[in-house]
Amino acid sequence: MRSGMLKTPALATTSLAAAAGVLLLAFSGTAPALAQTSDLVSKTAFRVCADPANLPMSDRSGAGFENKIAELMASKLGLPLQYTWFPMATGFVRKTLQANACDVVIGYAQGGELVLNTNHYYTSAYVLIVASNSPLAGVTTLSDPLLKDKRVGIVAGTPPATHLARNGLMPKAKGYHLMVDRRYEDPADEMLADLQSGAIDAAILWGPIGAPLVRASHPDLKVTPLLSEPTPPRLFYRITMGVRQGEKVWERKLNSLIRRNQPEINAILAKAGVPLLNDMGTGPLEVRD
Fold this sequence. Notes:
By secondary structure, the protein is α/β, with parallel strands linked by helices. The protein contains seven helices and twelve strands. It is 24% helix and 20% strand. α1 runs antiparallel to α7.
């Protein structure tokens, strides 16, 4: 998910997709046929479904953290890595995974109905991003009175929007598109540019998108995971790999790979700047860069 799925989340999520309202994190399309089996999984390549322009998650150059995880999985399987590229938007799963053009989506929010989820390999959350020297730098919850009358950037249709509405912050909020082809429109980068220019006072993004972008290009901004909201919807999500419904053998094989290589996966995510949380989403997961 990238604007906000969590695929991303995208994340957003994402999802991802999450994004879950997590960006990307949720994808639309027809439900997969349950008759599909692991016989459809390629024996000659690790075939990944991915967005070609969805940094910091994935892109054609292989610079995204999901690209790095795909490379790790392929190497452990002893297979060449092969991509099917398609924008993380409406129809993504239907035109890639369900069409048997590829065998796995590297980042997909746990509970997505269009795929069979592996065990989750990380947990993350939406984040609040503000200037480091802003009076809002200490804000940890969207109910904080300091946010009253502030202009908050939000990806439309994502879970934090419900909290903004509940706290009376929507009238001055600025919305950004959720399901986009990021080759032509980049809501996350637009939101961060608006924050830097003063057009908005704070930005809310799916953490695996927003935090790496801040680390890479916005050193004067502060990122705070939103872990303290007292009411639903939750703002943290467990991210899995997604495979075709019915492919239990393939799912178990990936589960085994994830379990055996979790430290290396964590290192890739930490290096990218992804906010990693414990399984319950209540605090950070300690990982060395």
